Structures
1.
Amino acid sequence: MGTRLSTMGDVNSEGDNRERRAATFDEIAELYDLGRREIPEQLIDDLFANVPIDSAHADVLEIGCGTGQATLPLARRGCRVLAVEMGANLARIACRKLAGFHNVEIVNARFEDWKPVRQFGLVLAVTSWHWLDPRVRYQKAAAALKPGGTLAFTTGGHAFPPGFDSFFMEIQDSYEAIGAGRLEFPQPLPDEVPDQRIEIEMSGFFEDVRVVRRLWKQEFTADEHVALMTTASDHRLIEPDRRERLFAELRRLINLRPGGRITKHNLTMLHLARVKQTGKPTPSASPSAH
């Protein structure tokens, strides 16, 4: 049958900052695909080391697949994946890239509006959970899971462990010069960054909550780093002339370094929780208490 692309109407924008920023990715879908790398294999290893599912038999609902940064590694491991992506352009690219996998379907829909066609053993959101409506995301995820199924999502981002690359301190003057503010140092250490364990428990829909932290790093040339920053939602909202001034300074500083490369540390917090058997919140908790 092959990978297919389904559609589900237009996304009804809520007009808030979260949805506005989320929509920027679809506006630059081709650039997003070029700038965003696949997630590291060790993150997939962490996932299947902590869920009672063999990857070759996993039935996964992926929320916010982008252009397939996590979908491709899942598909290669034999997972059956239904990926829901709200951006029509992103979904088309993901569909094209995954066309050779008969175990993958891409659905163009806003997860909050989408009605599951079946229940899944695993609901997964890699770097997309924070874009979902916090009023309904836990309830919707719970409803999509089989009894005993697992919700897994990641949070985190740029991390600053001891010895992090000083480039990220040096570039702050350039951000301030274009009116984008600056990141103040010292930043919290990776083990000090809060997770969302309490929020999951307060939703009332999940139990057996666990968080797996992984610190990892990547190297970037000037062009690679600018390509990544071009896709960042906060950078997309910077006025174009000011953004290009910033990117020119990024390139200059990186190219001055030996080898013309920087090292970026990332913290990924993999949150795992088992859906409660009732599929309903406990009387003492509110599904909107986030």
2.
Amino acid sequence: MSRAAPPHADGRFLVFAGVIILAFAIFLIVGVIMGVTMTGGLGGWNMQDHMAGMMGRAGNSPQTPVANSQPEVSVEIRDFEYFPRDLTVDAGAKVTWTNRDSAPHTATAKGSWDTGVLKEGQSGTLTFDKPGVYDYICAIHPSMQAKLTVR
């Protein structure tokens, strides 16, 4: 009477177990990387701040309109807001938007001008030669709204 060999005797069981362990390890590593990135660890952007901007909780702090006759003017993007939110400049002024948030942002006047996507620490500069009133938003977080007046 011959005895049947155990299921792992021919190596198929070991290969199957190895594949399962490898798949689990890859899944675990990807999950950790995504978790660290979304919580702002290791230089990633913060998912909670990003969602606050997406859900319309941007632009709530009180601000005073700013009129600036300098040839170069800065707008800071932080906490899902533009600072200043209401800016007046002279024709020919260069306006630079600098993103201080961990989430990417834009300054976009529909059909008119766009800084492109600005990641944390990046800036975009545009020159405004034509007088007018430009309402603009962040194309990624539309609840972020501001106004630029060129006189």
3.
Amino acid sequence: MLSVARNQLRTLPPQIGRCRALERVDASQNRLEIVPASIGQCRALRALDLHGNNLAAVPAALGQLNALESLHLQQNMIELLPPELAYCDSLKDVNCFDNPVRNVPAQSLTDIAMIRWMCGHNLHWQGRVAALEESSAELEDAARLSGEQRMLLQERVEMLEREMGLLEESTRNYRAFRKCWVATCPAALTCTIA
């Protein structure tokens, strides 16, 4: 296992491809902007955690990782996932949460991974909407609160309102994703995501 989490790294060295027996890489919560294509040479890699970085893309070479089971890409700036991920036959867990993903080709991920990505994304925002509604109700009762309590509550509501703007964008992404998924998935799975 290679663990370089929380080290403010901007890139992984291209020599990582020489670590052919490497099974797990945790490079989360750095400042990674690029992942070297040589990572595709780590054929034994089963888990790759790149969450919490500044990645705008991941290399197509990830498609060479046939043993890859878990791919964590949440909290980056990734807009497109490479279609080569379809070649990762063992891939079971993909987390793309909190990315501005515009296009997730259905053929690029296994059915289980696709459904987990979609459900996790949708469930998070359902929770945020409930929190906003709760805060709005609390704000109506704010007349009974002290000045400091009222200010804290108002800050919370403002934060949630900003997140609602993100929710609207996320909902558009989700609908585009769902349309793509429903158009390409087997009829037996369609009801799972309706």
4.
Amino acid sequence: MKRLIALLLGFVLTAAVLAGCKKPQTTSSSEEPTSDTESQTSSETESQTEDPDKPPVDFSFGFTDGGYMEGIRALDLFTLPDFSEVKLTRSNYALPEETYEESIAQILSGFAQQQKNRAVLKGDNVNISYVGYVDGVKFSGGTADNQDVVAGAKNYIDDFLDQIIGHMPGETIDVKVTFPDPYKPNPDLSGKEAVFKTKINYITWTPEFTDDFVKSHKDELNESLYSEGLETVADVRAFLEESYETYFLRQAALAALAPKINAIEPTEEVQKVARNYLSCQIYMSYAVTLEDYLEKSGASEETVQEMIDDDAKSLIFYQAIAETENWNVTDEEIEKQASDTYENVVKTYGRGYMAEYVLYQKGLQYIMDHITIE
């Protein structure tokens, strides 16, 4: 089954990239070298290129194995704010009912099935194709393929969608309608009778979202939602409510802290690390080098520099939290955050990059633990 997390909710979709950082996943795709910084030597680049099992980008460039920037003390560059001064009201970030229903519809769409062995009933979701004729002549705008409609609905002209009821998938029928007068989309059709030769392709059956459904598909749902223990409708709702609230509370907290983060002035050394960091993120997203990205996207050097500045400030900010708490990253923490074994992700990204990601995640949680939520 498709990873529903990518389809389910916008807040879940972007939860892993709150500060421009993507969750690391090992891949076996062939990759082109990126231009990291002038401080990388040609011998380093050559050694990376010669090893077919090692990515040609140095994800851990500029980071110690502990995930801290080499030779840089963030607390010398930035003083952490009083996080308790950020005050948020929890009830303002509750999951809206409409969003919940849309989320469930997205989940169920992954289990929809085509039916062709029964007649169309009122309320069925039906896929149709049609060609429209007026006085025996096909008219512009009257043709469509693979349209998803609801049998009996009133969003088509006249009683178009009533006339497909009772017919079997595979049938081609004449749907006879009269255009309204006036008909603003095409005044030439106002009041005219038309015939739409309509093929009923199939009926789409979608299961009901019940406890039995969740229990029957709990393994797929838990994997797709990166969750554990979802066995009832109530479990899924609670998970979605918590995910929604957590994401938007976090976004609001970061928005409140943005002026202080934006005031950070990165040093040249941090800028070098950030440029390579951005290079790696672009490669992970688009499988192109930073230079190729500039050429193909049309982005200016100024735009890229702004992105580097943002990453540099973010690196300083989250490292300052880590320094304050004197965090050390364990192998177990890296494996828990990754989507693969510790050995595989470290082989692909290096321990420094993975450890930095863990520190970033711990920093996000630190913020949420220290702001004021009423």
